[in-house]
Amino acid sequence: MRNSKVKPFVMVLATVVMLLSGCNQKTIYNRYVHTPLDGWEKNDTLFFDIRPIGKGGQYLEELGLRLDRRFPFTSLQLTVEQVLLPMGHVRYDTLTCNLFTKGGQPMGDGISYYQYTFPISRVMLNKGDSLHICVRHNMKREMLIGIADIGIKLTKE
């Protein structure tokens, strides 16, 4: 008698878990890399490797950025280098990230750390394609303080 009540409960629970876990199938990749606490040097490149994707189509690439008030500028310029594998095509994007208003107010979300998201590009990928992405800053100052994390997000459109 007890076993007959447990089976429907387990089935309902399994269905709910499957529905909830399937809600955000569009995000293929979302990872942040920490920058050094003492500052991010101009030649310190951050690497992101997106494994071969399971479904071809149009994808949106976004860059995430977390920083604090120690960051000394109102904007940040980044170079994003992408290698599409297995074809070996290389693409360079330069992002100018506006971070603070002229009055010094952060344009991102947060209190002590500010979170920003910037679009990189839309890219057409085939099933089995992967990406190797490198991010570095392109500022005149060699060492940048106040940047905590840089992230890459890939979403199926």
The separation of the N and C termini measures 48 Å
Number of strands: 11
Provide the helix percentage.
10-25%
Mean pLDDT: 88
Shape: globular
Q: Any low-confidence stretches, pLDDT <50, length ≥5?
A: 10-22
Task: Please state the structural category.
Answer: mainly beta
User: From N to C, what is the helix and strand string?
Assistant: HEEEEEEEEEEE
Radius of gyration: 20 Å
Can you summarize the main beta sheet?
Answer: 5 strands, antiparallel
Number of helices: 1
User: Assembly type of the shown chains?
Assistant: single chain
Strand content: over 45%
Q: Which strand order does the major sheet show?
A: 1-11-4-8-7
Describe what is shown at a glance:
The chain is mostly beta strands. It is 13% helix and 53% strand.
Structural features, described:
With 157 residues, this protein is mainly β. The chain has 1 helix and 11 strands, in the order H-E-E-E-E-E-E-E-E-E-E-E. It has one helix at residues 2-21, and strands spanning 27-34, 40-41, 46-50, 57-68, 75-85, 89-98, 109-110, 113-125, 130-137, 143-144, 147-156. The strands form 3 sheets. It has a 5-stranded antiparallel sheet, with no helix packed on it. It has a 4-stranded antiparallel sheet with strand order 3-9-5-6, with no helix packed on it. Strand 5 and strand 6 form a beta hairpin. The termini are far apart.
